[in-house]
Specification:
By secondary structure, this protein is α/β, with parallel strands linked by helices. The chain has a single domain, classed as Rossmann fold (3-Layer(aba) Sandwich). The protein is built from 10 helices and 8 strands. Strands 1-2-4-3-5-6-7-8 form an 8-stranded mixed sheet, sandwiched between helices. Helix 1 packs parallel to helix 10. The radius of gyration is 17 Å and the shape is globular. The protein starts with 17 loop residues before the first strand and ends with a helix.
């Protein structure tokens, strides 16, 4: 290896914490995998920080691609306050990406991150080469605005059960779902250094209202999305109803759709052994 080159980091648990200033915000981010011309930028879900990405999926994609994850404004290690709308969050993402010097990226997104990613590609269609949308739905999608009630109810259930809320929000409460949920939460603990602070209650509430506003607003014209698109979800998503994944598939020409059986919002995490290689192949350089 040339001494002037940085060593390739293959494990998300060991990716160094970094920051970059963009549009008056210090964005916290991590990167790993072999550097290339086009990175895969990961857009995270409601209430999530850098520590909420499943390392089994990140590491699989980073085996061949330059992967970048980042904290939304006002969350985790990023400065500022959480924006009131997902359009503004998409603008933040654009500022972050361009500050890093990229004019072309691939996108991997989950849940709220998928909503932000859609807003980004609609506004900057030439920025994105390939698009992965998981556990998400289109702007103005049917019952999208019910996410607030579902989220607070499942948080209450998790408190009573003394469990991580993600076990209720992301997974079915049958035997397979409970096992998958606990395994997922354990994987999120693999990183032991430079971990993010969890999201604050005010920031969490702002994100929820932004999703509700997204669900109640006019639809975006997704026909302009012509880049290769992979859509995936579980068949029983209570947060962002699974039918909205089919709706995205219908709206985005030539997109691919995967629905995993007997699984919920976190279907891609429950079925990571099947999904990770599919996503890595789709995003292969």
């Amino acid at each position: 290896m040339n001494a002037t080159h940085e060593p390739v980091i293959a494990s998300y648990a060991k990716a160094p914490a970094k920051t970059i200033a963009a549009a008056g915000i210090d964005f916290a981010y991590r990167e790993l995998g072999p550097k290339g011309d086009i990175p895969v930028v990961f857009f995270v879900h409601l209430a999530a920080t850098l520590d909420n990405w499943d390392p089994r999926i990140i590491d699989a994609i980073a085996s061949t691609r330059h992967v970048i994850t980042f904290d939304q404004r006002g969350v985790g290690g990023s400065s500022g306050t959480v924006p009131d709308t997902l359009e503004a969050a998409a603008d933040d993402a654009y500022s972050f990406i361009t500050a890093l010097g990229f004019d072309k990226i691939d996108v991997f997104s989950f849940s709220m991150g998928g909503m932000i990613a859609q807003d980004l590609v609609v506004k900057h269609p030439h920025l994105v080469r390939k698009l992965v949308l998981t556990g998400t739905g289109p702007r103005g999608g049917k019952d999208m605005d019910k996410v607030v009630a579902v989220t607070y109810w499942d948080i209450l259930r998790s408190v009573v059960a003394r469990s991580d809320p993600k076990e209720f929000l992301f997974f079915n409460r049958d035997r397979a779902g409970k096992q998958a949920g606990k395994a997922f939460v354990e994987r999120l603990k693999e990183r032991t250094i430079d971990r993010d602070a969890p999201i604050g209650n005010k920031a969490f509430g702002t994100q929820l209202k932004a999703i509700q506003r997204y669900g109640r607003s006019a639809s975006s014209d997704l026909s302009i999305i012509t880049q290769p698109t992979l859509i995936a979800n579980g068949d029983n998503d209570r947060m962002v109803p699974s039918i909205l994944s089919s709706d995205l598939h219908r709206r985005i020409k030539d997109s691919e759709l995967i629905i995993y059986p007997n699984s919920g919002h976190g279907g891609i995490f429950q079925y990571w052994e099947e999904f990770a290689p599919v996503a890595a192949k789709f995003l292969a350089p």
